[in-house]
């Protein structure tokens, strides 16, 4: 460990706003496509020379990249950081504790053993990264919105549709009045007919799918409370979200959003359902028992 790294790492715990953010390199890469030109210049320098950035001041980084100090601070805040010092601390962790699994794309020549390794490592990394991006306070806020609602609507299109259906099933099991809407036309109509006593959960990996963005916007304009489950980074759907729950799943040519992102999304849904059940423990346990008895009729 270098002296610079030790110095930065000793900053742990001095200020809660400077807490380490795991997988900062992954955050930068996932956000890269939606960055403006100046932010991309800053990102390129950080990705190329993270150890050098750890030893720099915000003034030095701005002068080296040609960006203003305000641009550097905005760059950090858009990554969910409090500022430049938290970026340096997080880079120190990334350098000292590099990512255990690398996102590898499948190759035409891969044998079955290699395919197994790459796919499982990709799923494991998606869970690790998503855990670092998921804010407990956001889960708590989503729980509050859904518990206050008379009913819950869940929107998902394409590869997000099975996740929406799973969330619907899980909510029914703990006694919540919920329905999944996975047809884009029905989504638009249903969203436009929501009211302030409805909570909407929209699942969209990219956050840019027109149908789900429009449905979430219509629900928001109708007064519904909106929760969005999407991948980390800027996306159009976030403008219409009261609460945003982030995943961090890196997609490659073969492992598209139909694969690793679903693993992360399902784990976030599991977390949300567990938190909802614990918030109303007695009713949830009773409903689970009753629904288990109903389902037992379908077993031999």
As for the number of domains, it is: 2
Compressed to H and E, one letter per element, the order equals HHHHHHHHHEHEHEHEEHH
- How much of the sequence lies in strands comes to 5-15%
List the uncertain runs. Answer: 1-17
Radius of gyration: 21 Å
Oligomer: single chain
CATH top level assignment of the largest domain: Alpha Beta
Structural class: alpha/beta
Q: How many strand units?
A: 5
CATH fold-level label of the largest domain: Rossmann fold
Distance between the first and last residues' Cα: 61 Å
Which superfamily, in CATH terms, is the homologous superfamily of the largest domain? Glucose-6-phosphate isomerase like protein, domain 1
Shape estimate: globular
Strand count, sense and barrel status of the largest sheet are:
5 strands, parallel
CATH architecture of the largest domain: 3-Layer(aba) Sandwich
Question: What share of residues is helical?
Answer: 55-70%
Please report the number of helical segments.
Answer: 14
Layout of strands and helices, then pairs:
Layout: H1 3-9, H2 24-31, H3 37-48, H4 50-54, H5 58-65, H6 69-78, H7 84-96, H8 112-133, H9 136-148, E1 151-156, H10 161-173, E2 178-181, H11 184-192, E3 198-203, H12 210-221, E4 225-231, E5 243-247, H13 260-279, H14 281-296
Parallel strand pairs: 1-2, 1-3, 3-4, 4-5
Helix pairs in contact: 1-7, 5-6, 8-13, 9-13, 10-13, 11-12, 13-14
Pfam family, one: SIS
Domain HTH rpiR-type: 22-98
Keywords: DNA-binding, Transcription, Transcription regulation
